[in-house]
Amino acid sequence: MLFDLFRSFGVNLDLALEARELVRGKTGQEIPGVRVDRERFEHGEVTIVHIIEKAAETIMGKPVGTYITIEAPVLRENHPAAHHEVSQILARQLERFVAHIPEYGNILLVGLGNWRATPDALGPKVIEMSLVTRHLYNYAPQELKGGMRSVSALAPGVLGLTGIETAEIIKGVVEKIRPELIIAIDSLAARSVTRICTTIQIADTGISPGSGIGNRRAGINQESMGVPVIAIGVPTVVHAAVISQDTINAYLEQLQTTPVNAGFNPALARRAIEKVLEPFGGNLTVTPKEIDALIATTAKVIAGAVSLALHPGLTEDDYSYYLH
C-alpha cells in the first residue's frame, strides 16, 4: 500500500535505506543484487547498502553504488560530546572515498540548496564552516603543514535565485579548476519524521538536487561532471502525503477489532489525502519548527567530518586555526 502511495504522489525516496525498507516490506525478502552491512556505535548505527546489480538498481530506483547511512537520534539532542562522536564516525566513512586522492589532490566542496529557505540551507551552511585551502596552496604555501589537501568550496544557489542551472555552474567551475573529486552536500526528503536531521547518507553515485520533493534538476554525478561525485545528505523534510498515510495506518491499528477497520479502502484513503493536499498541488512537505537549530547542528557535524577526512594531518586545534 505504501509503495502505491509513493508512486501515485510522485514521492521519491532519497535514502537508499528507506527504498530498501519499502521494497522489502512489499516482498518480505531481501532484494537480489543488494548486500547490507551494519555496524553499531555508542550513539547510533551505520548501515551500508551495496547495490551491486543492474536488476537491483531498477527495483530500488537507485543507481548501482554504495550508500552509507548513519542513524544517530542524538543529533536532535543538546549533546556536544555525542555530536563529536558522530562527526568522527562520518569522517571515517568518508575516508574510504577519499583515500585514493593524494596529499596534494584537488577537491571541490559544493553546498547545494537555497540559503534563504532554512530546510534547504544545509549545503550552504556546511560550506560556511568548511576548511578551504586552495588559496593557501596558490598564495601562501608557507602556511600549510603536512596532511592538507587542496580544497575549494562553492555554494551555487538554486535556479530560482540565479536563473542558472546548478549543474551548469558546477560544471563551469570544474572545467576551470579541474578537481579530482567533488563532494556535494544537500538536504534530502525522508519518509519518516524520525529521520529528520538524525540521519546522514553518503553515496558514491552523485545526486539529483530536489528529487525528493518532485523538483528534479540536472544530475550532479561522474557522468555529467567528468569526475567522481560523493554526495552527503540529511533529511530535513517529509512529504505530507506520507505523514497522512502513516497517521491513517496508526489510527487503524487502534481499531483492528472494530468493524471500521474491516471496511477500510486504501484507494479511498488516497483520495482523502489528495483532497487535503489539493491547495498545494499535492506537493506539500513538512519540517519541524526547530529546523534552524537542527540544521546548524548537522551542518557543524558534517563540516567537521569533511575537514577531518580531507585533512588527515590536522589536529582539532589546527582546524580552528585555519578556519579563522
TrEMBL record:
GO terms for molecular function: metalloendopeptidase activity. It holds the Pfam family Peptidase_A25. It comes from the Bacteria. Coiled coil: none annotated. Belongs to the peptidase A25 family. InterPro entries: Pept_HybD-like_dom_sf, Peptidase_A25. Homotetramer. It is an enzyme of class 3 (hydrolase). Residues 1-14 form a propeptide. It catalyses: Endopeptidase action with P4 Glu or Asp, P1 preferably Glu > Asp, P1' hydrophobic and P2' Ala. One of its GO terms (biological process) is proteolysis. Initiates the rapid degradation of small, acid-soluble proteins during spore germination. Its EC number is 3.4.24.78. Keywords: Hydrolase, Protease, Zymogen. This is Germination protease. It comes from Desulfofundulus thermosubterraneus DSM 16057. Autoproteolytically processed. The inactive tetrameric zymogen termed p46 autoprocesses to a smaller form termed p41, which is active only during spore germination.
